[in-house]
Amino acid sequence: MQAPHKEHLYKLLVIGDLGVGKTSIIKRYVHQNFSSHYRATIGVDFALKVLHWDPETVVRLQLWDIAGQERFGNMTRVYYREAMGAFVVFDVTRPATFEAVTKWKSDLDSKLTLPNGKPVSAVLLANKCDQGKDVLMNNGLKMDQFCKEHGFVGWFETSAK
Ligand SMILES: Nc1nc2c(ncn2[C@@H]2O[C@H](COP(=O)(O)OP(=O)(O)OP(=O)(O)O)[C@@H](O)[C@H]2O)c(=O)[nH]1
């Protein structure tokens, strides 16, 4: 097989409050597994997802799993540097984590802009949708409106389970 000609490396952030499932979403995406055991991330963790985009192109996604407790620290500026996009995660079973979404988004926008001066693309993830608490999710239109108002490119219901 011929070696790919093009390689792209993108740094993506995964942020959101404590225990919303950031590490679990990454684990599911990169390693296809899930653990119900909770171990808080300290600082930041990394994972790499390699996508064979087409026969000539390899895309490497460097996923930065930032600890929920970092919103109260000063390190996020350092972690955010040179990211191309972000996932902001909340837990559908805990409304307070949804309220924190706007705080994470403004932390992101105040500390990071793309070289062209625009904010980085951010996607909102409504995680733990397997828990059946779809109070927010029954309201797709409201979520669309929320994304528009707060500058998210879109939102998805997710489950890492
Ligand atoms: N039912 C269910 N549980 C989940 C899901 N995602 C994560 N969990 C559980 O929620 C807990 C927290 O998950 P983590 O992935 O560690 O959360 P985190 O956002 O990385 O937490 P911090 O590192 O503290 O910021 C763990 O017990 C997970 O097993 C999900 O989609 N469904």
UniProtKB/TrEMBL annotation:
SUPFAM superfamilies: P-loop containing nucleoside triphosphate hydrolases (SSF52540). It is a lipid-anchor. GO terms for cellular component: late endosome; lysosome; membrane; phagocytic vesicle; trans-Golgi network. The keyword Phosphoprotein does not apply. GO terms for molecular function: GTP binding; GTPase activity. It is found in: Endomembrane system; Membrane. Pfam families: Ras. Transmembrane segments: none annotated. Keywords: GTP-binding, Lipoprotein, Membrane, Nucleotide-binding, Prenylation. GO terms for biological process: endosome to lysosome transport; phagosome-lysosome fusion. InterPro entries: P-loop_NTPase, Rab29/Rab38/Rab32, Small_GTP-bd, Small_GTPase. The small GTPases Rab are key regulators in vesicle trafficking. Belongs to the small GTPase superfamily. Rab family. This is Ras-related protein Rab. It comes from Orycteropus afer afer.
